[in-house]
Design a protein that fits this description.
CATH topology of the largest domain: Phosphoribosyl-aminoimidazole Synthetase, Chain A, domain 2
Helix content: 25-40%
Strand content: 15-25%
CATH superfamily of the largest domain: PurM-like C-terminal domain
Number of helices: 11
Strand order of the largest sheet: 6-8-5-9-7-10-11
Largest sheet: 7 strands, mixed
Shape: globular
Radius of gyration: 21 Å
Length: about 325
C-alpha cells in the first residue's frame, strides 16, 4: 500500500488507502501501510498458520448487500478456518478489486464493518492492494494466525471410534440463500418474520467460532470449518484421515427457523446439509475426551452437538435416516466448478 504524504501529491489510490484503511493497520508490523510489505514474527514457540479466501459479488454475496456486512463476511470466512485449526488470529492482508462506480459512502461503510471486526477479533490489517475492475467487486483476504508449535488441528487425525461433533446449527445460511433468491418460499415453509430474519442473517454474516480454538487443540483429533456444506466437508475430512463416518440425520442440530422449514418441506434436508456457508466447525473427538470437550464448550457458551461416529473404511460418509437407511443426495456439496 502507498506512502503517506500531503494530499496534493497523493494518487487516488493513495488517498483511498489513507482515508479508509490506514486506521485499520494497528499492528506495528504493518508499518502504517507506508511500505510495500509488512513484517510479522510469531511469538516464541508458536507456528504460523496461513489461510486465504476471497468473496466475490454474485458468488459469495449479493452486490446490493450492505457494505459493512460485506467487509465483515470477507474477514470472518477466513477467521472461521483459523479457528478450526486451533489458531488465534494474528493479522490479515487484503486485495480489493473495486468496480468503477464505488463511492465514498460505500468505502466508508465497508471499512467501518471490516475495522470493527478487525478490532473485535484482534486481527489487524497488515497491508494489501487496491485495484479498479470492470468485473464484480472482489475482496481477497489472506489471514495469519498462531498455534503453539506442533499443535495445529489437521483434517487427517480422525480415528475409528471418534465421535463427530458440529458447533452451532447447520443449514441456516443455505436456507437463507434460498429465501433470498425466492422470498415467496417463506410462505411455503411456514416462516414468520423473525424466522426469515434469522436465516437471512446467517447467510449475510457468518459467526466464526474463534473462542473454541484452544479447546479444539486440546480435545479434537481432526477439525475443519464447514463452508461447502456438512456432507461435502465431512467427505474431505474422511478422505484426509482415510476413514469413513456415519451421521444420524435426526441428531443434526437445526435452528428453530430451519426446523419450521423442514417440517413443511422435508426435502430441504438436502439443501441444509449440502448447501454451504455454515461456517461452523466440524470436528472429531476421542471418546475419552468428550466430557472435557463438552465442558469447555459450555464454559464458552458455544453449542456443540454429537452427530455421528467415525468408522473404518474408505467409502463415502453415510447419512442415515430415523430407520437407519442411508440417504443419498443429488449434489453432495457446494462446488465452484
Amino acid at each position: 500500500m502507498a506512502d503517506r504524504h500531503d494530499e496534493k501529491s497523493m494518487s487516488g489510490e493513495d488517498f483511498l488507502i489513507d482515508a479508509y484503511f490506514r486506521p485499520l493497520a494497528t499492528h506495528p508490523g504493518a508499518l502504517a501501510l507506508q511500505d510495500d510489505t509488512a513484517v510479522l514474527a510469531p511469538p516464541p514457540g508458536f507456528d504460523l498458520v496461513l489461510k486465504t479466501d476471497a468473496v466475490i459479488a454474485g458468488v459469495h454475496f449479493f452486490a446490493d448487500d450492505p457494505a459493512d456486512a460485506i467487509g465483515r463476511k470477507a474477514l470472518r470466512v477466513n477467521l472461521s478456518d483459523l479457528a478450526a485449526k486451533g489458531a488465534s488470529p494474528g493479522g490479515f492482508l487484503m486485495s480489493l478489486a473495486l468496480p468503477g462506480d464505488t463511492g465514498a459512502d460505500w468505502l466508508r461503510a465497508f471499512a467501518g464493518g471490516l475495522g470493527a471486526d478487525a478490532a473485535r477479533y484482534q486481527c489487524p490489517l497488515l497491508g494489501g492492494d487496491t485495484d479498479r475492475t470492470q468485473g464484480p467487486l472482489t475482496v481477497s483476504i489472506a489471514a495469519v494466525g498462531w498455534v503453539p508449535h506442533g499443535t495445529m488441528v489437521r483434517r487427517s487425525g480422525a480415528k475409528p471410534g471418534d465421535r463427530l461433533f458440529v458447533t452451532g446449527t447447520i443449514g441456516d445460511a443455505a436456507l437463507g440463500l434460498r429465501l433470498r433468491l425466492d422470498p415467496e418460499s417463506a410462505a411455503r415453509w411456514g416462516l414468520d418474520g423473525p424466522s426469515c430474519d434469522h436465516l437471512l442473517a446467517r447467510y449475510l454474516i457468518p459467526q466464526p467460532r474463534t473462542a473454541l480454538a484452544q479447546s479444539l487443540r486440546q480435545y479434537a483429533s481432526a477439525a475443519m470449518d464447514i463452508s461447502d456444506g456438512l456432507a461435502g466437508d465431512l467427505a474431505k475430512l474422511c478422505r484426509a484421515s482415510s476413514v469413513c463416518a456415519d451421521v444420524l440425520i435426526r441428531q443434526i442440530p437445526w435452528s428453530e427457523a430451519a426446523e419450521k422449514a423442514l417440517r413443511h418441506d422435508p426435502n430441504l434436508v438436502e439443501t441444509a446439509v449440502t448447501g454451504g456457508d455454515d461456517y461452523e466447525i466440524l470436528c472429531t473427538v476421542p471418546i475419552d475426551q468428550i466430557a472435557a470437550f463438552h465442558a469447555a464448550a459450555a464454559q464458552l457458551s458455544i453449542d456443540v452437538t454429537q452427530i455421528g461416529e467415525v468408522v473404518a473404511g474408505n467409502a463415502a460418509a453415510r447419512f442415515l435416516d430415523a430407520a437407519g437407511r442411508a440417504v443419498t443426495f443429488d449434489r453432495p456439496a457446494f462446488s465452484h466448478f
